[in-house]
Amino acid sequence: MSWAAHELESYFLQKHTKIRVSYLAILLGCLAPDFTKFHVYGLDIGPIHLKAAKHPYEYHRGWPGVGPTHSLMFGVALFVFVLLVFRSKQWALGLLIGQWAHVLTDICDSVGTMVFFPFSTQHYTIGMWAYAAQQGKYGDAAAYYSSLGGVWDFFWLLMVLTGFQVLSAGYFFAHVVPNDPVWGWLRRRFHLRDVTLLAMYRAFFLYGACRIIAWFTWSRLVRHAPLDWSWGGPYWVNKVVLPHEPWATFAWNTTRSLVLFPLSLYLLWVLFGRRLWNRGQELPALL
User: Fold this and answer.
1) Contact 99, 79 (CB under 8 A)
2) Which residue has the higher pLDDT, 278 or 46?
């Protein structure tokens, strides 16, 4: 799993999407699959007590479990739901783009994602870094920021910084606000000033950047975890690697999914997707 890339890639995606789309929807789509993540490490806040899953990878990425949230079809479901209920094209597209980005990002660890669920429970992974959630939050952080996972986060931080104009007030009010009436609603509902809205927009960049630097520094100076930038590292963690399917099985699952997934998208579009899209609205900014 990625620790900060999901927050940072939303800025890049919004900037390079050449149609009207909500930044907030992209951000929410990037984060949505991990809203179930509290059960991965466990959570204790006041009266809330959630036990960590016995096998986090089965719960988080598998089936049965919440693994379908890390499939492309989950993004399609969000797209249809928003068009059906709210009729907002900007938000439907944004959620789809962000959620698909999350799915494709998470194939980088050693467990990967069920990209084509429900047509197949086949996991797709390039094994770039170790999936180590079973080590607990701190063990996972040490492993991630001692491997190519940390490099991946720094890459997305660099991508945002090299296009730093995306964080400017001019870009925010000229490109982000006009694509989403939610900013106007926030301003009116909570009596927010422009500087507050801009701070809210920049907040996830600041959060992601601080998270990367803090966890990387903690891993070096407190945990003293050895760096290992080899593919699939770090070598010292007991990572999860799913059993490899025979090549014939893998080929069959992939071929079947590559036929059924686009076919299902076509049928959804013909049966009711096109109608929902045509009745949807590109809502104007109301700031």
Assistant:
1) no
2) 278
